[in-house]
Write the structure tokens for this entry.
Amino acid sequence: MKRASALPCCAAAVALTLAGCSSRPVQAPVIERAPPAVTRPAAPAADTRSETYTVKHGDTLFSIALDQGHDYKELAAWNKLDKPNLIHPGQQLRLKPPPGVQEAPVTVSPITSSGRVETRPLGAQGPVRADPAAHPPSAQEPVKSEPLARKLPYSPENVALLQRGETRPGAGPVPAPAPASAPALAGKTDADIDEEDKVEWGWPVRGRILAGFSEASNKGLDIAGTLGDPVIAAAPGRVVYSGSGLRGYGKLVIIKHNKTYLSAYAHNKDILVKEGQSVVKGQKIAEIGSTDTDAPKLHFEIRKLGKPVDPARFLPPS
């Protein structure tokens, strides 16, 4: 009888022990998570250009400026050259501003006080004339700073529209597509473009690609065209060269877009902008020609810190 009465007591003790265990709180497992990645802005382009340059046989200040990505007038000022054409082999030139001097910033303000863009053919004498393509006879109102004539909202793109005689609201710059025969040239990106110096590029002419970029033999793109066809600025900037002093380029326009990028437009028939003038993207700057070449075409270059780069990596798909 005593053994039988002990069994219920043992069962009760086990039940109390289990109940006590089940009443303890159960802790969830701790999972350590890594902090979210912080996106940092791209670092500015590393300027690896030399501080000085020793003039070689055949160099001109124009060619040195193009190869170093500078305005030749600034190089002349930094080196106290009264006559930029007078440099000689062995001469050492400063390629950076002297202490206390800064490189001139690029500003875009192409409209003159009269509401017209100053343009003239290369070598023309007399006063600057207005580009007839920029102001057709039907556009009588002067261009205002705000708002633009024709009730368009003020923007560099609409300025370019009015200069080309297009006053339809909503119309964009005239596209200059790449040829269908060269699809590999379109849609590429340049991974090392710095956000600070990024440029929104457009095609400078319509036409078939005659020759692509080659580090060994061609510093840009050769694009076919018809004599007199318009050449337009591929991006906004300041004209730093307008002339025919670089051998092999014919009548040439060079535009500086910022501290990093230049663009060059060669073999023109007529040049319609002058040095120091600001231009907007899509503005007519020249006409296709065949100067210093065998057929009408545009040779187009993009230079990063003076070094030629493949324009196809920068131009948009078309």
User: Anything to note?
Assistant: The first helix runs from residue 2 to 22. Confidence is low (pLDDT under 50) at residues 110-120, 122-150, 169-193.
